[in-house]
Amino acid sequence: AGMCLPPLWKKCHKALQAIPLYPQSPSTNVAGIPVGSIITASLGAVLLWVFPDGEVFSAYTALRILVLIYLTLLAIKVPSALALTTAGSQFFHVLRSEVGPYSLGIPELMLGTMLIAWTTRSLYYRKLQLERSWILYAGLLLLLTAAIASIFAPYPKFAMRSLRLVLLEPFLLFILLTTYLDRRHARALLASVAIGGIVTALIALSDPL
Questions:
Q1: What is the pTM of this model?
Q2: Pairwise CA distance, residues 39 & 195, whole Å
Q3: SS3 for 54?
């Protein structure tokens, strides 16, 4: 299996590069990121919000799974585009009232696609794609301390949910953003966050519930 895996990765990678996952027009780039990939990733995030929640085997659930698979493939091919879109989608937390210790919103789903793509790319290149810094190690230490404290909390399930929302997800988002974005993308990142906030505000004004 170990001998067959690298050739399989190469074949899959070549096949993925040949698939047109985003429109080539307009052909302009934003800090080296194709505009078509950013637009397509943004539309995918919007579709995740548009499709309502359904039962496990409902049509809406199937459509959301298809969108997530597509976004994962796009993240493998153009991770910087998904990184920008995931950052901008963080405001989508307020669009749906997620309850319960294991509930997942649109930002978590986008983050999940990025994590799968990050793992896949690291396996393909046989190198852990990670920007190491003192912030990374400090965050890991803080996360470990908070995880141990959550285990002994009076309500461990909800303590773990708070741990996920307050520490784990922002930390993972920081890791992915620093891995796939650099100083060239600073303006694009700010624009993505601003646009995500404006879109969320407009949606909330039209449908406050």
A1: 0.80
A2: 12
A3: coil
